[in-house]
Input
Amino acid sequence: VRACSIASEAADWMILDTTGYLQGATAVALKGAKVKALRPVHVVALGDDESVDVALEPWRGDAAVTVHRLPRPSGAAAKAPQQRAQWRRQGFSDWLAGSNLRWIETTGRELRHAPARELYAGAYEGQLEGLLLGLSDADDRGICLGLLRSIDRRGDRLLSLCPEVAQTARIVDFGCVCLEADGTQVAQDRESVSYTHLRAHETPEHL
Output
């Protein structure tokens, strides 16, 4: 959304590919949130899958949005799960290239979706290692990504695998997936870690 806002200052038209993630309630909710946030005047949907119909439902009666249904190209094929995983791994790896362990002071920075204290101060602490971090400037523009290594609550700082430019960030967003340094997603036992708690708190006081 921020990128589109910036681009709109120089471009009359923008075309945004929102990816083909459509299977399941989470995918549909994410697609709907993207369209609502971007407020497009035209939405182009490929194919006649039931998941596409569900994703388009909120805009059928919206006079400000024109929905275009086009047939799925004969050459289009869904990526296998292994291909998608490799694509994500490579993307994260590229973002993390050149990263080293660095202490990031939390004082003076806005922390979003910080982990609940019981997740980093108790038995689950090790399971937060590799938690994805998004670091942005004061205008909320993304600077880089990092991976959490540990949180020093008493010292008001966190240890992260990140590039040097992370030191300039004013905003730190805590994600909800854990990665290895090469971008590989770490499988987590969701019964042992409550991921709801990862987004339970919004203020720096919880660190």
